[in-house]
Protein backbone atom coordinates (compact mmCIF):
# COMPACT_ATOMS: atom_id res chain seq x y z
CA UNK A 1 0.00 0.00 0.00
CA UNK A 2 0.89 3.65 -0.15
CA UNK A 3 2.83 4.68 2.94
CA UNK A 4 4.67 7.81 3.95
CA UNK A 5 6.91 7.89 7.00
CA UNK A 6 8.08 11.06 8.74
CA UNK A 7 11.22 10.93 10.87
CA UNK A 8 12.37 11.60 13.47
CA UNK A 9 9.41 11.88 15.81
CA UNK A 10 11.29 14.16 18.20
CA UNK A 11 14.41 16.28 17.90
CA UNK A 12 16.11 18.25 20.65
CA UNK A 13 18.83 20.62 19.50
CA UNK A 14 20.96 23.30 21.06
CA UNK A 15 20.12 26.77 19.87
CA UNK A 16 22.26 27.49 16.85
CA UNK A 17 22.48 23.87 15.70
CA UNK A 18 20.88 22.64 12.51
CA UNK A 19 17.70 20.55 12.28
CA UNK A 20 16.35 18.24 9.59
CA UNK A 21 13.12 16.29 9.25
CA UNK A 22 12.35 13.80 6.51
CA UNK A 23 9.31 12.35 4.79
CA UNK A 24 9.80 9.14 2.83
CA UNK A 25 7.17 7.54 0.64
CA UNK A 26 6.94 4.02 -0.74
CA UNK A 27 5.37 5.38 -3.95
CA UNK A 28 5.62 8.50 -6.07
CA UNK A 29 3.91 11.60 -4.70
CA UNK A 30 2.08 14.21 -6.76
CA UNK A 31 3.35 16.97 -4.52
CA UNK A 32 4.38 17.53 -0.94
CA UNK A 33 3.81 20.37 1.44
CA UNK A 34 5.34 21.37 4.74
CA UNK A 35 3.58 22.92 7.72
CA UNK A 36 4.59 24.24 11.12
CA UNK A 37 2.39 24.00 14.17
CA UNK A 38 3.26 25.97 17.26
CA UNK A 39 2.16 24.54 20.61
CA UNK A 40 -1.54 25.17 21.07
CA UNK A 41 -1.98 26.46 17.53
CA UNK A 42 -3.06 25.18 14.16
CA UNK A 43 -0.77 24.11 11.30
CA UNK A 44 0.49 26.92 9.12
CA UNK A 45 1.51 26.36 5.51
CA UNK A 46 5.23 26.80 4.79
CA UNK A 47 5.88 25.56 1.26
CA UNK A 48 4.71 23.29 -1.54
CA UNK A 49 7.05 21.22 -3.70
CA UNK A 50 5.83 19.84 -7.00
CA UNK A 51 8.76 19.21 -9.32
CA UNK A 52 11.24 16.37 -9.21
CA UNK A 53 14.49 17.50 -7.55
CA UNK A 54 12.99 20.82 -6.50
CA UNK A 55 14.79 22.87 -3.86
CA UNK A 56 13.26 25.94 -2.25
CA UNK A 57 14.61 28.24 0.42
CA UNK A 58 12.95 30.52 2.90
CA UNK A 59 15.59 32.36 4.92
CA UNK A 60 17.08 29.65 7.17
CA UNK A 61 14.71 26.93 5.89
CA UNK A 62 15.60 24.71 2.93
CA UNK A 63 13.07 22.33 1.41
CA UNK A 64 13.95 19.52 -0.98
CA UNK A 65 11.92 17.11 -3.09
CA UNK A 66 13.73 14.02 -4.29
CA UNK A 67 14.37 13.17 -7.91
CA UNK A 68 11.94 10.25 -7.73
CA UNK A 69 9.36 12.37 -5.86
CA UNK A 70 9.37 9.84 -3.05
CA UNK A 71 11.41 11.74 -0.48
CA UNK A 72 11.39 15.22 0.94
CA UNK A 73 13.24 17.08 3.65
CA UNK A 74 13.04 20.29 5.61
CA UNK A 75 16.32 21.65 6.92
CA UNK A 76 16.67 24.55 9.34
CA UNK A 77 20.08 26.18 9.64
CA UNK A 78 21.17 27.70 12.95
CA UNK A 79 17.97 27.10 14.87
CA UNK A 80 16.42 29.81 17.00
CA UNK A 81 13.91 29.58 19.85
CA UNK A 82 11.22 30.79 17.46
CA UNK A 83 11.63 27.56 15.48
CA UNK A 84 10.06 25.52 18.28
CA UNK A 85 7.03 23.54 17.16
CA UNK A 86 6.00 20.48 15.24
CA UNK A 87 6.76 20.23 11.55
CA UNK A 88 4.47 18.18 9.33
CA UNK A 89 4.66 17.06 5.77
CA UNK A 90 1.44 16.60 3.82
CA UNK A 91 0.84 14.89 0.52
CA UNK A 92 -1.62 13.31 -1.82
CA UNK A 93 -1.21 10.71 -4.52
CA UNK A 94 -3.24 12.68 -7.04
CA UNK A 95 -6.57 11.77 -5.46
CA UNK A 96 -7.04 14.94 -3.34
CA UNK A 97 -7.02 12.88 -0.15
CA UNK A 98 -4.64 15.16 1.71
CA UNK A 99 -2.81 13.22 4.39
CA UNK A 100 -0.35 14.37 7.03
CA UNK A 101 2.75 12.79 8.42
CA UNK A 102 3.10 12.09 12.12
CA UNK A 103 5.21 15.21 12.57
CA UNK A 104 8.60 16.00 14.05
CA UNK A 105 8.51 17.92 17.30
CA UNK A 106 11.43 20.30 17.56
CA UNK A 107 12.63 21.45 20.97
CA UNK A 108 15.35 24.07 21.29
CA UNK A 109 17.73 24.01 24.23
CA UNK A 110 18.81 27.59 24.96
CA UNK B 1 -10.97 39.16 5.92
CA UNK B 2 -11.13 35.84 4.11
CA UNK B 3 -10.65 32.76 6.19
CA UNK B 4 -12.00 29.71 7.90
CA UNK B 5 -14.07 29.98 11.03
CA UNK B 6 -14.56 27.11 13.40
CA UNK B 7 -16.94 27.16 16.33
CA UNK B 8 -17.08 26.63 19.16
CA UNK B 9 -13.43 26.84 20.17
CA UNK B 10 -14.04 24.86 23.35
CA UNK B 11 -16.87 22.41 23.94
CA UNK B 12 -17.72 20.08 26.76
CA UNK B 13 -20.25 17.29 26.34
CA UNK B 14 -21.50 14.36 28.31
CA UNK B 15 -20.75 10.88 27.10
CA UNK B 16 -23.47 9.57 24.81
CA UNK B 17 -24.42 12.95 23.35
CA UNK B 18 -23.96 13.91 19.75
CA UNK B 19 -22.18 17.19 19.09
CA UNK B 20 -21.80 19.23 15.92
CA UNK B 21 -18.75 21.35 15.14
CA UNK B 22 -19.18 24.20 12.72
CA UNK B 23 -16.79 25.11 9.91
CA UNK B 24 -17.41 28.03 7.57
CA UNK B 25 -15.12 29.44 4.89
CA UNK B 26 -15.44 32.53 2.72
CA UNK B 27 -12.45 31.72 0.51
CA UNK B 28 -14.60 30.27 -2.28
CA UNK B 29 -12.71 26.99 -1.94
CA UNK B 30 -14.19 23.82 -3.37
CA UNK B 31 -12.50 21.27 -1.13
CA UNK B 32 -12.91 21.07 2.63
CA UNK B 33 -11.44 18.70 5.19
CA UNK B 34 -11.84 17.60 8.81
CA UNK B 35 -8.87 16.35 10.81
CA UNK B 36 -8.56 15.04 14.32
CA UNK B 37 -5.46 15.66 16.42
CA UNK B 38 -4.80 13.97 19.74
CA UNK B 39 -2.31 15.57 22.16
CA UNK B 40 1.23 15.22 20.88
CA UNK B 41 0.06 13.38 17.79
CA UNK B 42 -0.29 14.05 14.10
CA UNK B 43 -3.39 14.96 12.08
CA UNK B 44 -5.69 12.18 11.02
CA UNK B 45 -8.21 12.66 8.22
CA UNK B 46 -11.85 12.12 9.18
CA UNK B 47 -13.84 13.24 6.13
CA UNK B 48 -13.27 15.40 3.09
CA UNK B 49 -15.43 16.98 0.45
CA UNK B 50 -14.35 18.11 -2.98
CA UNK B 51 -17.67 19.52 -4.08
CA UNK B 52 -21.08 20.43 -2.74
CA UNK B 53 -23.33 17.47 -1.92
CA UNK B 54 -20.44 15.03 -2.06
CA UNK B 55 -17.94 13.81 0.54
CA UNK B 56 -15.60 10.91 1.15
CA UNK B 57 -14.46 9.04 4.23
CA UNK B 58 -10.97 9.61 5.45
CA UNK B 59 -8.89 7.24 7.54
CA UNK B 60 -10.92 7.47 10.78
CA UNK B 61 -14.52 8.17 9.72
CA UNK B 62 -16.21 5.74 12.11
CA UNK B 63 -18.36 7.55 14.67
CA UNK B 64 -18.43 10.79 12.67
CA UNK B 65 -20.77 12.25 10.06
CA UNK B 66 -20.64 15.31 7.79
CA UNK B 67 -22.76 17.20 5.32
CA UNK B 68 -21.90 19.59 2.51
CA UNK B 69 -25.10 21.37 1.54
CA UNK B 70 -23.35 24.66 0.83
CA UNK B 71 -19.92 25.42 -0.58
CA UNK B 72 -19.06 27.57 2.43
CA UNK B 73 -20.05 25.11 5.14
CA UNK B 74 -18.82 21.68 6.19
CA UNK B 75 -20.15 20.76 9.66
CA UNK B 76 -18.87 17.70 11.51
CA UNK B 77 -21.04 15.69 13.89
CA UNK B 78 -19.31 13.60 16.51
CA UNK B 79 -21.80 10.88 17.34
CA UNK B 80 -22.19 8.77 20.43
CA UNK B 81 -20.71 5.90 18.42
CA UNK B 82 -17.28 7.53 18.51
CA UNK B 83 -15.50 5.64 21.28
CA UNK B 84 -12.95 8.26 22.26
CA UNK B 85 -14.12 11.65 20.99
CA UNK B 86 -12.03 13.93 23.22
CA UNK B 87 -9.58 15.63 20.85
CA UNK B 88 -8.65 18.77 18.93
CA UNK B 89 -10.60 19.04 15.66
CA UNK B 90 -9.27 21.01 12.71
CA UNK B 91 -11.20 22.09 9.66
CA UNK B 92 -9.38 23.05 6.49
CA UNK B 93 -10.08 24.12 2.94
CA UNK B 94 -8.06 24.03 -0.25
CA UNK B 95 -7.90 26.58 -3.03
CA UNK B 96 -7.29 24.83 -6.32
CA UNK B 97 -6.13 28.00 -7.98
CA UNK B 98 -3.08 27.86 -5.73
CA UNK B 99 -2.40 24.16 -5.90
CA UNK B 100 -3.03 22.11 -2.80
CA UNK B 101 -2.29 24.71 -0.14
CA UNK B 102 -4.36 23.98 2.91
CA UNK B 103 -5.82 26.78 5.00
CA UNK B 104 -6.77 25.80 8.54
CA UNK B 105 -9.28 27.12 11.00
CA UNK B 106 -8.28 27.81 14.59
CA UNK B 107 -9.58 24.43 15.72
CA UNK B 108 -12.16 23.18 18.20
CA UNK B 109 -11.27 21.48 21.47
CA UNK B 110 -13.89 18.84 22.34
CA UNK B 111 -13.91 17.26 25.79
CA UNK B 112 -16.34 14.48 26.56
CA UNK B 113 -16.90 13.71 30.21
Secondary structure layout plus pairing:
The complex is a heterodimer of chains A (110) and B (113).
Chain A: E1 4-7, E2 10-14, E3 19-25, E4 31-37, E5 44-49, E6 55-58, E7 61-65, E8 71-76, E9 85-92, E10 99-100, E11 104-109
Parallel strand pairs in A: 2-11
Antiparallel strand pairs in A: 1-3, 3-8, 4-5, 4-9, 6-7, 7-8, 9-10, 9-11
Chain B: E1 4-7, E2 10-13, E3 19-25, E4 31-37, E5 43-51, E6 54-57, E7 64-66, E8 76-78, E9 87-94, E10 97-100, E11 102-104, E12 108-112
Verbal overview:
The complex is a heterodimer of chains A (110) and B (113). Chain A contains no helices and 11 strands. Chain A has 110 residues and is mainly beta. Chain B has 113 residues and is mainly β. Chain B has strands at 4-7, 10-13, 19-25, 31-37, 43-51, 54-57, 64-66, 76-78, 87-94, 97-100, 102-104, 108-112. In chain B, strands 2, 4, 5, 6, 9, 11 and 12 form a 7-stranded mixed beta sheet that branches. A 4-stranded antiparallel beta sheet of chain B has the order 1-3-8-7, with no helix packed on it. Chain B is globular and about 40 Å long. Chains A and B meet through strand 4, strand 5, strand 9 and strand 10 of A and strand 4, strand 5, strand 9 and strand 11 of B.
Short description, anyone?
By secondary structure, chain A is mainly β. Chain A is built from no helices and 11 strands.
Descriptors:
heterodimer; A: 110 residues; mainly beta; 5-stranded antiparallel beta sheet; 55% strand; B: 113 residues; 7-stranded mixed beta sheet; 4-stranded antiparallel beta sheet
- How much beta of chain A, percentage-wise? over 45%
Report the count of strand segments of chain A.
11
Q: Main sheet of chain B?
A: 7 strands, mixed
Number of helices of chain B: 0
Average pLDDT reading of chain B: 91
Please state the overall shape of chain A, judged from the principal axes of the Cα atoms.
globular
Largest interface: A-B, 22 and 26 residues
Element order of chain A: H for helix, E for strand: EEEEEEEEEEE
Spatial gap, N to C terminus of chain B: 36 Å
User: Beta-sheet strand percentage of chain B?
Assistant: over 45%
* Overall helicity of chain B: under 10%
Please give the radius of gyration of chain A in angstroms.
13 Å
Could you tell me the number of beta strands of chain B?
12
Give the averaged pLDDT of chain A, no decimals. 93
Q: First CA to last CA of chain A: what distance? A: 42 Å
Amino acid sequence: GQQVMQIPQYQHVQEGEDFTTYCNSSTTLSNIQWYKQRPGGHPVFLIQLVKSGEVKKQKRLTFQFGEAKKNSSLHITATQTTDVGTYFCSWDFGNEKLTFGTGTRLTIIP
Amino acid sequence: DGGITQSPKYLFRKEGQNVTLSCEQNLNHDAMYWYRQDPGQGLRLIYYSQIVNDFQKGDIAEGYSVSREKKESFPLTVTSAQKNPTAFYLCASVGRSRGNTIYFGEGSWLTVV
